[in-house]
């Protein structure tokens, strides 16, 4: 019986991999609302992927539960490469990581620490001092409990020894709207979501969260050099498929995604949005995801954070 089941599983996998790809429009699920970094990068890649594959690429937003709803939807989809997930640090959790096949990293960029102009600080050092003088007065927004924008701020709070009130949203775009309106004070946000507002003077950028200065924003100091030594946090975006997707198909899609990321127009648009293109093989991306999960899982346990 076991041999029969194995043979059936093998024949199903072979039948899936033998089908031409793509044989119909490809849906890329974004597990957050429109307007956030994940959505923006997906739509930058969309036309070039469609041209390469000769099929429409449909971007479908399925927000909720800090990315878990969209992730679970793709995990349960038919493993034929026609339904993919563009996720960020937040959408991949211990609950769904084994149900998804990593395809490629798209971008791993620092977050930008931004504040509403009414907050009387202009540097990270001043932010730390102000927060210490006013414990719990400052509020920071995120795209959901357990999201990277939340965890980056929690790491900052822990290392800087400050308290700020967390206000979770269903997506980064919604949080930025309230940051602009003054309903919240601070955000650790993807650059592509806030830099237009910074350039227009509607938000103040204090620092980037990487260990080294970000090539896209070379004038901004890092959080570490600006007052919190040793601090580092990256916000990453990557493409996934259902776990049962045949390895040769995953490799094919990964190679195509890397071609798109190397396209001059895609690179130009991503850099203009504040994101550096970062291609990877499925194997390297899988190792990257595991390392990131280990880091943030430890922090959540230390801070008593339960993802949505």
Salient structural properties:
43% helix; D-Maltodextrin-Binding Protein, domain 2; 308 residues; single chain; alpha/beta; globular
Description:
This protein has 308 residues and is an alpha/beta fold. It has two domains: 24-108 and 234-303, 3-Layer(aba) Sandwich (D-Maltodextrin-Binding Protein, domain 2); 110-208, D-Maltodextrin-Binding Protein, domain 2. Helices cover 43% and strands 19% of the residues. Strands 1, 2, 3, 4, 5, 6, 7, 8 and 9 form a nine-stranded mixed sheet that branches. Helix 2 (37-53) packs across helix 8 and helix 5 (148-160) crosses helix 10. The longest helix has 22 residues, at 282-303. Mean pLDDT is 89; it is low at 4-9 and 12-17.
Summarize the main sheet.
Answer: 9 strands, mixed
What's the pLDDT, averaged over the residues? 89
**Strand fraction:** 15-25%
CATH class of the largest domain: Alpha Beta
Q: Give the terminus-to-terminus CA distance.
A: 41 Å
Looking at CATH, which topology of the largest domain would you report?
D-Maltodextrin-Binding Protein, domain 2
For the record, the count of structural domains works out to: 2
Number of helices: 10
The H-level CATH homologous superfamily of the largest domain, spelled out, is Bordetella uptake gene, domain 1
